[in-house]
Amino acid sequence: MVARPRSASSSICATRARGLTMDVRSRARSPSRCAKAKSRRPCTATPSLSTVGPHQLSFDVVPAGWAADAGTGVALRVFAGDFLVNGTTIHSSTIERQYLDHSPVNYEYFTGQALNVLAVDVKQGAIATYTKTYVGKSATITPVRAAGATDIPAPAFGVLNTTSNVGRIGFNGSAVTGPNFVLAASFNINNNYRAQKSVGVLGAVGVGNGQFTITGQLQTYFGDATIYNQILNNTLVSYDMRLGRADGNRETLLFDFPAIKLSSGSPSVGGNNQDVMIQAGFTAIRHVALGYTVSVGRFWYLPTS
Question: Is residue 146 part of a domain?
Answer without folding.
Answer: no
